[in-house]
Amino acid sequence: MKIAVLVKQVPSSESMLPLSSDQTWIDEGQVSFVMNPPDSFAIEEALLLREKIGEGEVVIVSMGPERVKKTIKEGLAKGADRGIHLEEEGKIETDPLSNSKSFSSVLKEENFDLILTGLQSDDTGMGQTGVLLGELLGMSTATLAMETEVQGDSIRVKRELESGWFQWVKLPLPASISIQSGLNTPRYPSLKGIMGAKRKEIKCVSSAEHRSGAQTQFMEKVFVPQTSKQTEVIEGDADTAVARIIEILKSDIKVL
Fold first, then answer.
1. Residue 67: left (phi > 0), alpha (psi -120 to 50), or beta?
2. Per-residue confidence of the chain (256 residues) as pLDDT tens digits?
3. Which option is the CATH number for 2-210: 3.40.50.620, 3.30.428.10, 3.40.50.20, 3.40.50.720?
4. Is the separation of the CB atoms in 118 and 36 below 8 Å?
5. Is residue 158 packed enough to be buried (19+ CB in 10 Å), middle (13-18) or exposed (0-12)?
6. Strands 166-172 and 154-160, sheet pairing
7. Spans of all domains in the chain
8. Which 8-state DSSP code applies to residue 77?
9. Angle between helix 96-107 and 129-136 (nearest 10)
10. What is the DSSP string of 144-212?
11. Residues 210, 149 contacting (CB under 8 angstroms)
């Protein structure tokens, strides 16, 4: 089985996030980057599936500037076989549809049986790339996968629904599946794996080769919400107090 795992490099949760001068994104020069945490569960699930089947190939795929290779190598150190780096130049692309078109233009030639993605990214949190990619490549799709089981030319997926409900679905391969965080325990790279990752192939695809048309969604403004604290003492009898509270809930807090 040939499995692709899409990973993303995102700002560390412990890193400061200073805004750029035009307030359209963060100032990346002052930020430390790590692998998107939900994607580590997708990598682990791919490795577990390969181990259960007893054969196959796991390929780490990521898009971004040169620094993204560090994240790809982390996946290789965990046990993936090779990597594909979709290079980006200039401003980072944040449009899920445009990104999915780039991935599909590269992955369609690979003929993957399965494409796994994390639930969503920790920076923009769109959660759309896996679904869009499945549509563009003509694959069956499923989201919020809590368990997977390959059965010949199909795959059974346990999906998490609302209110504590779950759903088993059976999909024909090839398929694109978004993995729910927490379905497994991601492994750490071993010393042997880290050393071995240096010898594994990372195919680089230039921006000109994978970009297809202009983006359809733009990040207009990123800003820190302004907060203010105000205390109001409501005096008078019960009817006056109730009337004032209702007025605040309707006009100020707007929950009624």
1. alpha
2. 999 999 999 999 888 888 877 777 777 778 889 999 999 999 999 999 999 999 999 999 999 999 999 999 999 999 999 999 999 876 676 788 989 999 999 999 999 999 999 999 988 888 899 999 999 999 999 999 999 999 999 999 999 998 889 999 999 999 999 999 999 999 999 999 999 999 999 999 998 889 877 777 777 888 887 777 778 888 889 999 999 999 988 888 778 7
3. 3.40.50.620
4. yes
5. middle
6. antiparallel
7. 2-210
8. H
9. 50
10. EEEEEEEETTEEEEEEE-STT-EEEEEEESSEEEEEPTTSS-PPPPPHHHHHHHTTS-EEEE-HHHH--
11. no
DSSP string across 10-29: EE-TTS--PBPTTSSSB-GG
Helix/strand/coil for 73: helix
What's the rounded Cα separation, in Å, for the pair 43 and 4? 9
For residue 85, give the DSSP letter. Answer: E
Nearest to 18 by CA among 31, 2, 7: 31
Residue 208 backbone phi and psi in degrees, to 5? -65, -25
Structure tokens at 214: 């202009």
3-state secondary structure of 93: coil
* Cis peptide preceding 186, ω within 30 of 0: no
Give residues with Cβ within 8 angstroms of 9, minimum separation 6.
33, 34, 35, 36, 62, 64, 67, 68, 70, 71
